[in-house]
Amino acid sequence: MFYYVKGTVAHTAPYLAVIDCGGVGYACRTTNNTLAHLKKGETAKLYTHLNVREDAMELYGFATENELNCFQLLIGVSGVGPKAALSILSAATPESLAMSIITGDEKALTVAQGIGKKIAQRIILELKDKLAKGQISPGGESYGGTGVTVIPENKSSEAAAALAVLGYSQNEIGMALKGIDLEALSLEEVIKQALKKMVKG
């Protein structure tokens, strides 16, 4: 229904940003990471997700499409609601979350408030499985296809898998990783540089 809202930041509070668009204030539930980019009185653009329940309609807004993609992936996991997803994305950036999923680092997820070991394990299991069933590396090698999760063995494959979690296609990932010094940079820096190239593109 809404792809994004763009307007003046009228008000911020924990997990909330109100964006004034032409005299209408849109209350967007959001993360600490997005709130850190907002300043009252300045123009902001938030990519949105409308969550509809029987008793309420709530709008969620994010500073980047990557964060929105991660939010939508998380709420697709059984037992993970919007509140838990916001908590996770307040404690982790999209790229660090993607790395946690790919490497099976449940401790990184339990840092988020209200996220226990069982939920963290479920997130890793279900989102790794999504990669295993459909995502492909830039080299054309499937990470799965048999329903069995395969952890990438090198930095290029790990970066590709993490970018795939964020919603990028095989071709986009392949182009973004070209020219990046995989040996000299950490995995997180490789992912960050690739994301920067894709945003500029």
From TrEMBL:
SMART domains for this protein: HhH1
Gene3D superfamilies named in the record: 5' to 3' exonuclease, C-terminal subdomain (1.10.150.20), DNA helicase RuvA subunit, C-terminal domain (1.10.8.10), Nucleic acid-binding proteins (2.40.50.140)
Record has Phosphoprotein as a keyword: no
Alphabetized CDD domains for the sequence: UBA_RuvA_C (cd14332)
Region forming the signal peptide: none
SUPFAM superfamilies for this protein: DNA helicase RuvA subunit, C-terminal domain, Nucleic acid-binding proteins, RuvA domain 2-like
Domain Helix-hairpin-helix DNA-binding motif class as annotated: residue spans: 72-91, 107-126
Main localization of the protein described in the UniProt heading: cytoplasm
Pfam family, one: RuvA_C
Alphabetized UniProt keyword annotations: Cytoplasm, DNA damage, DNA recombination, DNA repair, DNA-binding, Hydrolase
Complex formation: Homotetramer. Forms an RuvA(8)-RuvB(12)-Holliday junction (HJ) complex. HJ DNA is sandwiched between 2 RuvA tetramers; dsDNA enters through RuvA and exits via RuvB. An RuvB hexamer assembles on each DNA strand where it exits the tetramer. Each RuvB hexamer is contacted by two RuvA subunits (via domain III) on 2 adjacent RuvB subunits; this complex drives branch migration. In the full resolvosome a probable DNA-RuvA(4)-RuvB(12)-RuvC(2) complex forms which resolves the HJ.
Free-text note regarding domains: Has three domains with a flexible linker between the domains II and III and assumes an 'L' shape. Domain III is highly mobile and contacts RuvB.
Job of this protein: The RuvA-RuvB-RuvC complex processes Holliday junction (HJ) DNA during genetic recombination and DNA repair, while the RuvA-RuvB complex plays an important role in the rescue of blocked DNA replication forks via replication fork reversal (RFR). RuvA specifically binds to HJ cruciform DNA, conferring on it an open structure. The RuvB hexamer acts as an ATP-dependent pump, pulling dsDNA into and through the RuvAB complex. HJ branch migration allows RuvC to scan DNA until it finds its consensus sequence, where it cleaves and resolves the cruciform DNA.
Protein name: Holliday junction branch migration complex subunit RuvA
The organism's taxonomic lineage, starting at the top: Bacteria, Bacillati, Bacillota, Clostridia, Eubacteriales
